[in-house]
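Format is chain and fold; as here:
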Amino acid sequence: MSALATAEIESLVRSHRRQLYALFETLSPEQWLTQSLCGEWRVRDLAAHLVIATEASTARVAKLMARHRCGFDEAMTHGVAQMADLSTVAVCELLRSHQARVVAPPVIGVRSPLMDIVVHTFDACIPLGLPFEIDPTAYPDSLNFLNSSLMRRQFKCRIPNSQVLVATDVEWNSRTGSSEASSHGSSGGVGRAQPALEATAAQLLMALSGRDPVVLGQPSPLSKFFV
């Protein structure tokens, strides 16, 4: 359920970057070392990843993958490790210098950087206990992207394809909000369709990206997939 043009998505990416990067510039040394919600990465590692995501060309990422004989995620981990000696001031300067650059990766397109900055805003701000805002219009495209077959595999999504998901605070559901709607809300002709699960857009974003929505501080029916 999104009709956002590329220019609108790019504008959302830039506005959310401004918010998160401004927050990074206020962090203490201890806060930089806080464990994020993104795997084993600290907030500092997360910021380094965002540098790579905004400045790296497809060729550079491919080179990392070839050098280390690994997939995309592992290549990003190696890239983050290479930035370990940079000061947090230098990391912030790099983020600011590439803030306006929105790279649309081949195949997956411009929704990828939107999802990336929105999810990582949660990843950094929730454990830090710092306030932030997500523009509601950023959710449908981010959720559509996370609900695609490619991203479900990448994030090892625990929610079955047959489970219909409905956002309670934005206009989105997993049947008509995705370009692959026909694969959701059915069980392949075996058994009965499962009742729809309703949750906030933020809870759906967390769950589809492999994070237990309980981190948001409120009960969610999606948490049953993370037990």
About this structure: Residues 6-134 form a domain with the Four Helix Bundle (Hemerythrin (Met), subunit A) fold (CATH 1.20.120.450). Residues 135 and 195 are 29 Å apart (CA to CA).
